[in-house]
Design brief:
Helix content of chain B: over 70%
Oligomer: heterodimer
Mean pLDDT of chain A: 88
Number of strands of chain B: 0
Strand order of the largest sheet of chain A: 5-6-7-3-8-9
Radius of gyration of chain A: 19 Å
Largest sheet of chain A: 6 strands, mixed
Distance between the termini of chain B: 19 Å
Mean pLDDT of chain B: 87
Largest sheet of chain B: none
Number of helices of chain A: 7
Shape of chain B: globular
Chain lengths: 263, 262
């Protein structure tokens, strides 16, 4: 494990509140209500909730591209980078690659943005493309790659900046089921090697159960966290194992009871 | 490839037919003051390049001076237009203040703009430069502005999330998306520029292809008039199709890769 002592937190969010102006009225509606969570260094944490519950907004607030109204978000740089600007990487639903740049130059773009010293670029590109299974694609253009491969490039791009925290916003939801399943499996392997800290947003409980060390469950109206679950199953996990399936079934039941109680 | 050759063949054939028609018409009229034949015009063009003209310079000098005028005005109008268009697209204050002015400029007829510029700046190089900029810059700016509106917001968001500076965003995210708009503007701007420069040379400037055309027009020398017109048209065709088409196909190499796969 890289970085500091086990259990030191990478993100702390305390009582975070965000409101949006409601269309056609002076009042604001609450998107995020009193959200508190922590993500420990090197852990994979998921936020699961129904569509439109504000999960993506939460990630945008953490990424620093949206303001918030109350509470606080703290990102702690890894132990070897204490005192530096925290590095936040993002994998979006769609790859969001710059199609006019080669795969390699797409990664160079974020390395330049993060002011990573140029002599390291080559090593970071090679290492991370190899990690996502795209070794040798450096000079290819994104539009020559399949959707799944493009999303792999997006993952390599995010890992290349050696982020303190990697935010993933339903990164497999735009892929067909088979490609998504393969990519999820490969992400598990990548985690074994790179051990990044990940905050993963999804509406797919089975995906969250398979990938995560812990899960925060969110509900809507008002958007809030109602449960935290720790998943202690050893890795590597099998996507169809009975334990995962039982766990998922229980969580789904719980979800529905909360949603119904909410009306 | 075969289709490409066929197109080239057809084009060559149609030009050949036009020259033949011209030749037949001139033979029928049989009066070089009204329509000299293509052979006489071709000989005059060659001679113009070989020996000094009425102003003591050969045609090379006029071609060079016209090209310099065109490229200086073209570059200035493109740079100003791209700058203004970007400012309008990326800055709300610029957008609101300039958006009303642009249609005003675009409605102004080109030839009036040329006369206005000559009245203000006299028969000078700056006059033609101002005329070109007044006509071409707003057009380029509008194109760029529309380009900024069509940019993919999600890519800008991606760049911002990864902490890209405005400069880096401009270079790698904004400008590449605006390239199709730059090239669309490029073609129009170039066409408009050489037409305005030709007008300005005809009406006021000393030297240049337009000036020589007008000189021979006043002498009523039809062979010379035609030879200068043809020189000009051929020169502009070569520039537009030879040079710009090549630049354009290089700039969009990434797209070709995509269509080759599809």
């Amino acid at each position: 494990m890289k970085g500091g002592a086990a259990g030191s937190s990478a993100i702390t969010i305390e009582k975070l509140t965000k409101r949006f102006p409601a269309p056609g009225s002076a009042e604001k509606f609450t998107v995020l209500h009193d959200i508190s969570l922590t993500v420990d260094e090197g852990k994979f944490v998921s936020i699961v909730g129904p569509s439109g519950c504000g999960k993506s907004t939460l990630l945008n607030v953490i990424a620093g591209i949206e303001a918030y109204d109350g509470g606080g978000v703290t990102i702690h740089p890894r132990a070897d980078r204490r005192g530096a600007e925290p590095r936040v990487a993002y994998v979006f639903q769609s790859p969001r690659l710059l199609n006019w740049l080669t795969v390699e130059n797409n990664i160079h773009f974020v390395l330049e943005a993060q002011k990573v010293p140029r002599p390291r670029w080559r090593e970071l590109v090679t290492k991370n493309l190899e990690m996502v299974g795209l070794a040798g694609q450096e000079r290819n253009y994104p539009l020559n790659l399949s959707g799944g491969m493009q999303q792999r490039v997006a993952i390599a791009r995010a890992l290349a900046i050696e982020p303190d925290i990697l935010l993933m916003d339903e990164p497999f939801s735009h892929l067909d089921a088979i490609t998504a399943r393969k990519l999820r499996f490969d992400l598990m392997e990548i985690l074994q090697r790179a051990k990044p800290t990940i905050l993963f947003v999804t509406h797919d409980l089975s995906e969250a159960v398979f990938l995560s060390d812990s899960i925060y469950m969110m509900t809507t109206k008002p958007a809030r966290i109602f449960k935290r679950v720790t998943i202690d199953l050893p890795r590597p996990r099998k996507p169809d194992s009975a334990e995962l399936f039982d766990l998922e079934k229980n969580l789904v039941r719980e979800f529905f009871s909360v949603v119904e109680a909410n009306g | 490839m075969a289709a490409g050759l066929k197109t080239v063949g057809l084009r060559a054939a149609s030009i050949l037919v036009l020259i033949l028609l011209w030749w037949a018409a001139s033979a029928a009229i049989n009066d070089a003051d009204i329509l000299p034949g293509p052979d006489a015009v071709a000989r005059t063009i060659v001679a113009n390049f070989q020996k000094p003209g009425p102003e003591g310079e050969s045609a090379w000098f006029d071609v060079a001076i016209t090209l310099v005028r065109i490229f200086v005005a073209f570059a200035a109008a493109m740079i100003a237009g791209i700058g203004i268009g970007l400012a309008m697209g990326l800055n709300r204050t610029c957008e609101r203040s300039l958006l009303a002015l642009i249609p005003l400029m675009l409605t102004m007829p080109t030839i009036l703009m040329v006369f206005l510029a000559i009245m203000w700046f006299g028969y000078s190089e700056s006059g033609s430069l101002v005329a070109v900029m007044a006509v071409v810059t707003p057009y380029v700016a509008v194109n760029m502005y529309e380009g900024t509106k069509a940019m993919d917001k999600s890519l800008i968001e991606m760049g911002v999330t990864f902490r890209a500076s405005q400069r880096l965003l401009l270079r790698k995210v904004y400008l590449p998306q605006l390239m199709p708009y730059v090239f669309a503007a490029f073609r129009y701007a170039f066409g408009a520029t050489w037409k305005i420069v030709a007008l300005a040379e005809t009406f006021g400037l000393k030297f240049g292809i337009g000036y020589m055309f007008f000189f021979w027009f006043q002498q009523f020398d039809m062979t010379q008039v035609l030879s200068w017109i043809i020189m000009f048209v051929v020169l502009m065709l070569v520039l537009e199709h030879g040079l710009f088409a090549r630049i354009e196909s290089r700039a969009f190499a990434w797209r070709r890769a995509a269509t080759a796969r599809a």
